[in-house]
Write a structure and sequence with these properties.
Helix content is 37%, strand content 13%. The protein has 17 helices and 13 strands. It has helices at 11-20, 23-32, 122-133, 144-152, 186-197, 254-267, 285-288, 306-319, 328-335, 346-352, 369-385, 402-416, 421-430, 441-458, 470-480, 483-486, 492-502, and strands at residues 47-50, 55-58, 135-142, 162-167, 172-178, 205-211, 218-221, 224-228, 237-241, 273-276, 292-295, 357-360, 365-367. The strands form four sheets. A seven-stranded mixed β-sheet has the order 8-7-6-5-9-10-11, covered by helices on one side.
Amino acid sequence: MNTPRLGLLSRADLVEALAAGDTARVAYIAEQLGLHAERPATAKETICLPTVSGFAKVSPPEPAAPTPTIQPADLAPVPFWQPITLEQIGDQPPQTALHDSEAPICWNDRPPPPRFQPLATQRELHPRLHRALSHRHLGKRLDVPQIVRAIGQGRVLRRLPLEVRRGWGSRLQLIDDRSDRLIPYWQDHTHLLRWIARRYPGYALEYGVIYEGLEAPRLLFHNQPSHDYRPPPPGSALILLSDLGALAPPGDPASALWQTLLHRLRAAGHRPLALLPCDPNHLPAALRHQVTALRWERHPSPAAHPQQQRQQVERLLDLLSPAVRIEPGLLRAVRLLPEHREMDAAVESAFWQHPDLASNASPAATLHPEAARSRQQRLCRESQAAPSGNAGDDPLHSVASERLQQGLVASLRTWHAPLAAEIWLEEIQHLPPPWRHHLPASEQHLSQRLFRQLSRQGRGVAATAPPAGALPWFRRVEQRLPQAAWEDREIGPDLQRLSWALH
């Protein structure tokens, strides 16, 4: 046998030799590795494994204990319980996860989104704008009748005449007043801008805007920063979408702003067309002589005196006090009800500037909770005191007439039922009880279920927890709910229990 080199031997070779039973090889490898056996071992007694200090002893396994024999025996009796009767203990019904007040609120038959009612449609506004803006200018075609007439008379034509046409001109500048007092008319401005943009190419149309607080318009261009204002080139048409400060409160700087701007336009040779949401007679005389004033509304009512307009605004505030939010379109819809024929468009601006508004943002306005509750209580008292459908009452105070109730409830439902369900279901509780018979019974039931379910969840007596944000929402709602809701036989106790639990 060739003697292997020491560096090529390892303990793995020793284990391999032990497994093969080659005692001579085991002794040689152990000697080369510096290992020695403590004593001779036999296969039956002990197996020695190499360690650092020698061979470790591993005793053979002991024989396994005999498996015990399992003797069969009879099974012990086990009792099984089965309910066969149900008996109610106490006055409270058993609570289950499928209780009606805990089932999810599903509302699928909502009305479609509302349509905004403009002050005037495009078909009604176009001929009026055409008459006010068009002027005589040379066209591109030859005036054939004039040429024939000159030749027949024997006159020499040194230059072929062109036909004379009437139109707005090749260029147009439009200034849009976006002051806060004009928020009820912003959507009318947008509709007109889109219509005009389809009539003029981009290079021929300039758009200027005046935001609240600016002292002069800013010219806007597509994908470019705004520029300081400059009058349009001579011969251009010029339209002002503004009240020229006529609807601003006394002392507001809007009138002085427009006075400066119109003086600048007059110096440049322009007499603009002002499309007004109010009667042109409301304009100061100094402004009236510098513009061509055109009333925007298609069928305007006679302009109201200041005292009469204040009464009209108070009436609208009372009628819209049940609303959680008052969109400009909702305000327009209520103002245009047949019972409000005496109201003109200027009332909307006065409404938007009333101090009872907590917010007059462009998407929607909101009333102060205290003012809303006070007006709801007055509306409820008047609706209960006045006979329904009494045509002999003063239309300014007959807020409980059947037709007016139906029109107002329909307007509120049209504008708010398509929104989040909580908005309209809360407003149902804001309505005077006699007005609710104009609503579908299913929606009244849903409104009651909403507050009954929230009361149970908020007090911890329901199988489910209240949705995220539901309790903070109720804290805002309880500031708006009228006294009639707290005294209601259906949901009044639930509202009181939940409010007590929260506070």
